[in-house]
From TrEMBL:
<feature type="signal peptide">
    <location>
        <begin position="1"/>
        <end position="35"/>
    </location>
</feature>
<dbReference type="InterPro" id="IPR015943">
    <property type="entry name" value="WD40/YVTN_repeat-like_dom_sf"/>
</dbReference>
<protein>
    <recommendedName>
        <fullName>Photosynthesis system II assembly factor Ycf48/Hcf136-like domain-containing protein</fullName>
    </recommendedName>
</protein>
<keyword id="KW-0732">Signal</keyword>
């Protein structure tokens, strides 16, 4: 039906192996904990329409249009609308069934149910106009149109029992030649191109000449018994027309990567399989082309990776489990609209947020340092929140001690084992969380030192007095250090807060290199900090004291 619908899942041959490998390599994990405020909000519709069966949704930058079964067309403001108004007149009334609705420029097109034909309404207007130009000989007036696809001045409609009609500037022609089935449930195409697809009760049809001729059932669109399947939805990605999706009534979802020449099943794998639920609608995320949504008899499912894995969205607040229509606007990628058998609901997608700094467990050395053989572990799922599912990936980076900005990724996964090559450097975990919102989030754990055996290691930091006064000496304690034959070097620093974020910037105080320091008037108003370097013949370690209060 609508211009933003599509779905995903992997097939039973090579795709399953690819799915398993891709998920293993990425170390993906769904994180239902910390799911955020994942609750659907039921719409506010005119009296008596709250539990209307929803047939189609078209979400645009201007508004969200909804086609209902027996209550006409309703629209609501974009941006997560929950209040909708009826757009009824005498022709497309509040008791009319509408199969599909689509935006066409500044107008709306509606496919009236039964044999009601195609109707047009300006967004500012109140009268629906019948679309039956002379060239169509009034045929659309008796047509049970089930699907509308708008591409600029071209409008393609799929008609139950009559095939496909293509209209240019309002003039429609019969483009059903070659269709083996004239019961067409869905039409879609490549924007600005001549490639069209029609989902029918006898399979999927493809045209390369704008609908003048059709070839039927591209390779792969069959069920487990080799029988052509009934295709209820078809969708061509507008920014990548080589990727085509088709949803069947009995065999899940199919994906093509070659413009519809061949298809593979894309239903997920193992614990992340979408199941045998009847897929009634599907939609590609307009801001995340690899992400998609599917409306089924068991709620809404999402895939973040072209159908290699599927996860069920929350059903909390959803008016009914049977989801017949989905909508999302490219201008508003944080709201999902779901049309059910008992009304419409909106879900606000909460972006991934960090709960706290990722924590690493496993170091066994003094002062939280790591030793060769230690197994370090990070649990990235515990540190993110947002709308579930949240998928996470972790990797480990080794940074040079003398050049801490120079880091190299050593391994991907939630664990790593410290090796001799890590000695003298630092290790830390890098984690990334993504969900069905456009912006992923990355974070680093604290750096873990891997000292040379026997080299000094600070296990407690140096301390200086909290209060500092001009002319009064500050004494220090160097902190706890492991190792034999350790000597200390001192460097006092003056520190100030800068910028809107109050970041602290520190500078060495010339000549202040003993264990004590007496602030001068030049330090007034600044904070004081001490840098201590512990050294022996095997290496060294650096630690910083607390900050003093501003010098008075």
């Amino acid at each position: 039906m609508n211009s933003f619908w599509t779905a995903t899942t992997p097939n039973r041959s090579g795709i399953l192996a690819v799915a398993a490998a891709a998920m293993a390599c990425a170390s993906l994990g769904a994180a239902p904990a910390h799911a955020g405020n994942s609750t659907w909000t039921a719409w506010q519709a005119p009296a008596g329409m709250q539990e209307a069966k929803i047939n189609a949704i078209d979400a645009a930058a201007s508004d969200v249009a909804v086609a209902t079964d027996g209550y006409g067309v309703l629209t609501g403001a974009s941006g997560g609308a929950t209040t909708f108004k009826s757009r009824a007149d005498a022709d497309v009334s509040a008791t009319t069934s509408v199969n599909d609705v689509a935006h066409s420029g500044t107008s709306l097109l509606a496919a009236r149910g039964g044999k009601g034909g195609l109707w047009k309404l300006s967004q500012a207007g109140s009268d629906w106009l019948f679309q039956s130009p002379e060239a169509s000989k009034g045929e659309l007036g008796a047509a049970n149109i089930d699907s509308i696809w708008v591409d600029g001045t071209r409008t393609v409609v799929g008609i139950v029992g009559k095939g496909v009609r293509v209209g240019v500037n309002g003039v429609f022609k019969d483009y059903s030649a070659g269709l083996k089935s004239n019961t067409v449930f869905s039409v879609h195409g490549a924007p600005g191109a001549s490639v069209l697809f029609a989902g029918t009760d006898g399979g999927l049809a493809r045209s390369t000449d704008g609908g003048a001729t059709w070839s039927f059932s591209p390779q792969g669109v069959v069920d487990g018994n080799g029988t052509k399947v009934q295709i209820l939805k078809v969708y061509v990605e507008p920014t990548n027309p080589s990727r085509v999706w088709a949803a069947s009534s009995s065999d899940g979802i199919y994906r093509s990567g070659d413009g519809g020449l061949t298809f593979h099943r894309a239903n997920g794998y193992g614990d992340t399989e979408i199941g045998d639920y009847h897929v009634r609608s599907f939609m590609v995320h307009p801001a995340l082309p690899r992400a998609m949504f599917a409306g089924t008899e068991k709620g809404v499912w999402v895939s973040p990776n072209l159908g290699l894995a599927w996860y069920q969205l929350t059903k909390t607040g959803l008016p009914n489990d049977v989801v017949r229509a989905l909508g999302m606007s490219a201008a508003d990628p944080l709201h999902v609209y779901a049309g059910t058998n008992a009304g419409l609901a909106t879900l606000t997608l909460e972006p991934v947020a960090l709960i706290d700094t990722p924590k690493v467990t496993g170091p066994t050395g003094p002062g939280g340092t790591a030793q060769v053989g230690d197994v370090l572990t990070v649990n990235p799922k515990a540190h993110f929140k947002g709308t579930s599912p949240i998928l996470t990936v972790a990797s480990w980076k080794r940074c040079k001690k003398d050049k801490p900005e120079e880091c190299e990724t050593q391994k991907t996964g939630n664990t790593t084992t410290v090796t001799a090559a890590d000695t003298g450097h630092t290790l830390h975990a890098w984690v990334k969380g993504t969900n069905m919102t456009p912006e992923p989030l990355e974070a680093d754990s604290a750096r873990i030192k891997v000292p040379v055996p026997g080299a000094p290691v600070f296990f407690s930091k140096p301390t200086i007095p909290t209060y500092a006064t001009v002319g009064q000496a500050l004494f220090s304690l160097p902190g706890g250090v492991s190792g034999q034959g350790v000597s200390f070097a001192y460097q006092w620093q003056v520190c100030t807060k800068i910028g809107l974020l109050a970041q602290i910037s520190c500078f060495n105080i010339s000549g202040a290199t003993s264990s004590t320091y007496t602030p001068t008037t030049n330090a007034k108003g600044a904070m004081i900090r001490l840098k201590v370097t512990a050294s022996n013949n095997l290496g060294d370690d650096v630690a910083y004291s607390n900050y003093s209060k501003p010098v008075v």
